[in-house]
Amino acid sequence: MGGSEHCTVERDGHTLVVTMNRPEAKNALSLPMLVGMADAWVEADADDDVRSIVLTGAGGAFCAGMDLKAMNMSQGSQYAERLKTDPDLHWKALLRHYSPRKPLIGAVEGYAVAGGTELIQACDIRVAAASATFGLFEVRRGLFPVAGSTVRLPRQIPYSHAMEMLLTGRPYTAAEAREIGLVGHLVDDGKALDKALEIAALINAAAPLSVEAVKRSVRETSGMSEADGLVRELEIGWPVFATEDAKEGPRAFAEKREARWKRK
Predict the structure, then answer these.
(1) Which NCBIfam families match (predicted)?
(2) Which of 118, 186, 213, 243 could bond to 147 as cystine, CB 3.0-4.6 Å?
(3) DSSP string covering 31-45, please?
């Protein structure tokens, strides 16, 4: 199992749980954390027994963004050497230049600001605790949200809400995030991970090849015209019907039992 001192990676059944683990710094991003996360995405995709991923934070926070001081302190470490050999590693970790083929669920407690809000946009399903805080603070610091927010956010929530979040740099409550569609579920404090694992269990019970094909189609057709998207959807979706699992699903339903998926 991968991970690092700032990123724990654990299995919960068919779910890989990735935890940003710097609670003393509200899980601000460090180089060890980024390396652990980048490796976790690859590990999840390489393991056919993993059917879903949950991303969360330790100590009652999700992620407070980049910790530039911690990044500088990592110079000369084994992690800095990894970055030298793979200069794109940090973008893969932040899910800007990498999209896992397995469904990714974000479980947010506490702060999910700056890079934390950017990471949430890369999650397919998002759960937030009642006292969670979101926001893209970069413009208030003379910076820019380079992990994808100016592209992703206006595609995921209404334009006016996206622009307000991007241009004001103000904090958003969990209730506001739910209202504008940034997150899908609002739960009691301390229950975000439980809800995320509950959703993951439903995904894990479904046919893995079908789930992965659905996610792939949604991702690959984003931005296409409807006509082009429908062509690509058929290219991705039609082969699923020729799999053994496509026969197993209806058979299990008719026999009133749980399906036994073979991933073929």
Answers:
(1) PRK07799.1 (NF005864)
(2) 118
(3) HHHHHHHHHHHHHHH
- Is 46 exposed, middle or buried (CB count within 10 Å of its CB: 0-12, 13-18, 19+)? exposed
- Whole-number Å distance between alpha carbons of 37 and 106: 13
Question: How distant is the alpha carbon of residue 139 from its chain centre?
Answer: 24
3-204 CATH pick, 3.90.226.10, 2.40.128.270, 3.40.720.10, 2.40.40.10: 3.90.226.10
Q: Where are the domains of the chain?
A: 3-204, 207-254
Fold annotation for 207-254 = Lyase 2-enoyl-coa Hydratase; Chain  A, domain 2 (1.10.12)
Provide the annotated active-site residues.
118, 138
Whole-angstrom distance, CA of residue 170 vs CA of residue 165: 7
Q: 198 with 187: CB under 8 angstroms?
A: no
44-101 tens-digit pLDDT: 999 999 999 999 999 999 999 988 676 665 565 788 888 889 999 999 999 999 999 9
User: Closest by alpha carbon to 137, among 71, 66, 70?
Assistant: 66
Question: Which among 149, 136, 57, 134 is positioned nearest to 95, based on CA atoms?
Answer: 149
Instruction: Tell me how far apart the alpha carbons of residues 255 and 24 are, in angstroms, rounded to a whole number.
Output: 52
Over the stretch 151-179, which tens digit does the pLDDT of each residue have?
Answer: 999 999 999 999 999 999 999 999 999 99
What six digits make up the tokens of 15?
């779910």
SS3 for 164?
A: helix
